[in-house]
Each structure stands twice: as C-alpha cells, then as structure tokens.
Amino acid sequence: MLAALRLPAASLLRQLAWFIAVGCAAAATHWCVAVACVEGLGLAPLAANAVGWLVAFLVSFCGHYRLTFRHAAAPLARAARRFFLVSAAGFALNEAAYAWLLHATALPYDLLLALILVALAVLTFLASRLWAFRRTHGA
C-alpha cells in the first residue's frame, strides 16, 4: 500500500495542490452552508453541520475524481461508493469532535467547525489516495 504513495515529486506536489484546492472549495462550501443554515434557517449547529457536509460531499467528490485523483482512472461508481465511506467516516469524526468541543469550549461554533475541517484533511487525503480512488481492487 505504501507503493501507492510513491509518485515522482512533481506529480505528488501537483496532486497535493489539487487536493488542497478541491479540499478548500469543499470546506468553504461546508462552512458556508452550515453557517447559512444556522443564521438563515435557525438550525442547530450540529444539524447545520450535517447539511453542510452533504452539499460539500458533492463538491469534494467531483473535484477529487476529476482533478486530484484523475490519474488513477478508478471506475466512477466504485470511487463514489468508497469516497462516500471515507467522507462519512470523516464526517462521523467531525460531528463527534464538534459536539464535544461545542460543549467543552467557549470558542464560537463557526471557528470550531473551521478548525475541525482543517484537522481532518490529512486523513481524507491518505484514505482517498490509498483506497477510495485506487484503480485496482487491492486493499
């Protein structure tokens, strides 16, 4: 599986740049939708977070499939299923950490959400690269 991380330096840097760009777009979408749901619709922050994640999932999958991991040429349906699992696991961690931090700290809900979204990015990259967007059926 570690062989999947081996790319020429230029290719890996290009992939990381796309991952960051797509991830920033998805995180911004997630954050904006969640904040709009709290401020505009009066949803509780945890419910708004779920809505934000669902919308951001579409941005994230499309961007990563078409840009970040396009070289892998993974079948669309399999990549979508796998990335959904990666994203859902990340969201479960996100929601648990968010719920705990909302009660354990005095930090504003929007700042907490931004910090959590950044913290999960590395795990998402590794799981996406090593499993979700792999062309082969291995691991």
Account of the protein in words:
The protein is an all-alpha fold. It has one domain. Helix content is 78%, strand content 0%. It is built from five helices and no strands. Helix 3 (76-104) runs antiparallel to helix 5 (121-132). The chain is elongated. The protein starts with 8 loop residues before the first helix and ends in a 7-residue tail after the last helix.
Q: How many beta-strand segments?
A: 0
Order of helices and strands: HHHHH
Return the structural class: mainly alpha
> How many structural domains are formed by the residues?
1
* Strand residue content: under 5%
CA radius of gyration is 16 Å
Distance between the termini: 8 Å
Q: Uncertain segments of ≥5 residues (pLDDT<50)?
A: none
Helix percent band: over 70%
What is the number of helices?
Answer: 5
Give the overall shape.
elongated
How much is the average pLDDT? 88
Largest sheet: none
What is the strand and helix layout of this fold?
Blueprint: H1 9-41, H2 45-68, H3 76-104, H4 109-119, H5 121-132
Helix pairs in contact: 1-2, 2-3, 3-4, 3-5
Concise structural overview:
It contains five helices and no strands.
Key descriptive features of the protein:
mainly alpha; elongated; 139 residues; 78% helix
